[in-house]
Amino acid sequence: MSATTMPPALGPVKDQAVAAALGRRRKAADRLVRLLSYAATLIGLVFLASILLTLFYKGFGAMNLSVFTEVTKPPGSEGGLLNAIVGSLIQVALATAIGTPIGMLVGTFLAEYAKGSAFGNLVRFVSDILLSAPSILIGLFVYQLLVLPFGGFSGWAGVAALTIIIIPIVVRTTEDMLTLIPNTLREAVIGLGAPKWKMIVLICWRAATSGIITGILLGIARIAGETAPLLFTSLGNNAWSTNLNGPLPSLPITIYSYAGSPFQDWIELAWAGALLITLAVLLLNILARSVLGRGK
């Protein structure tokens, strides 16, 4: 028989029993992993739901008009959280106003001017360290830098600590959003004769607006509930005060102080303040997702 008429070589004969055993083993492993995944998800949801339900139950029970119209008062008095709310708004607003442009400019530098450079890698490394650093370390750093040399706690020190926290968040978001813009768009703009700064400001920033805004909102949500850095910087104040040169009240510090108090009315105010922060963070996250969704 010639080579052209020889039958093709046959592969090894499939053992149906071995194949069935392997199939059963794979299906069993798949069911086990799926069951463990469902169980882990359920456990996480149960804990999250229990925390939120407890917070909403106790927070809404302590919520009334005086929370928003009265300042904190001694135990047994009809006090509220007005001074703490205003103090938090001032510090968060100033930190956002200072940190956002710095973060955007640094992120733009990393994405547009420092690609592959050693200095850019160093800046990115430092930014990543700040992004993952415990906030209490930032509070201690600002304490050594602005509190001890100037002889006391101040709202400006609290603003500085929150600014350091929000900057790396905006840096990472801005760099990531600008990196996603295709280079062909940049080449087209440069090809029309536009300078690079105008290409960045009018084209790249505009294309990445939704992502950058999302990062800013997430940064605001992060610093709105920070307690540790404020303990070492602005300290807190139970009286009405908007003076940034002295101790400034804030909602996280008030919650921290009142939650461990032996007075029931202060504990109820702590629950009300915790609910306010939770709702604010939830609203910011929903807003960030909606902005990102519209951008896509």
UniProtKB/TrEMBL annotation:
It holds the Pfam family BPD_transp_1. The keyword Transcription does not apply. It is a multi-pass membrane protein. Its main location: membrane. Residues 85-288 form the ABC transmembrane type-1 domain. Gene3D superfamilies: MetI-like. Coiled coil: none annotated. It is found in: Cell inner membrane; Cell membrane. Keywords: Cell membrane, Membrane, Phosphate transport, Transmembrane, Transmembrane helix, Transport. The chain crosses the membrane at residues 35-60, 80-110, 122-147, 153-171, 200-224, 269-288. NCBIfam families: 3a0107s02c. Belongs to the binding-protein-dependent transport system permease family. CysTW subfamily. This is Phosphate transport system permease protein PstA. It comes from Siccirubricoccus soli. The gene is pstA.
